[in-house]
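Memo to structure team: turn this sequence into structure tokens by end of day. - J.P.
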Amino acid sequence: MHYLLLPLLSFFVGIIVGLTGIGGASLITPMLIFVFQVPPSIAVSSDVVAATLMKIVGSVKHWEQKTLDTEVVKWLAFGSVPGSLFGVGILHFIKRTGEYNLDNILLRLLGGMILLVTVLALVQLLLLTFLPKFNLPELPKFDLETNFGRFLTITLGGILGCLVGLTSVSSGSMFALVLIGFFRLDARKLVGTDISHAAILLVFTALGHLSLGTVDWSLVLPIWLGSVPGVLLGAKICQVAPQRPLRFIIYAILMMVSWKLVNQV
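Reply from structure team:
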């Protein structure tokens, strides 16, 4: 393993995350697979553990600032945490039976998830850029004061949590779309709620992946070393950098990465 190259590249990924808000798992996991030739099962598990620290640090800051909706975090987590553990359980089953190649399955799942998240985010960005007055039909708002609203929140959290447990992708990106679409959170609380929920989700997902025995600490520590200061620097640059051109470039890269993952032999 290139112990100098990994933290250096993780530093640049961290800058992109801090600068654009695009999830680190969509970038770091493919980087581990393609650049460092890490098997997908180890790349996914190691990235889950590496991402957990960044989310926890961010969630503590937002908790102190009271820039999060605790009720949304709580009810989403009631669904997403069991869902993620179920996803990890599926990986356990595949690994134990040995009937299927876990790495090949993860390559395609990972590529599919990155492609889905990227397409949704790209469509949203294109609409905001070229059709700012175009009004999409509003999604129903989940009312957490009713049992039905809580049931819907838990169910949706469970489905997305399972996908996070399987691939490590979308602990932030996909749930951010849910927070915007179904909870109408304002910008001040959106980021804090998203990060705080992701921190809870990834803690349990990381524990599940640790039980798989596919976490490589020689990957996790260099990623921490590079990505944490990178995120902090990216957040500073974010105040002056043009967001939309940067996002278009990153989304284009992610589209190519996801296509390559899906079509791996």
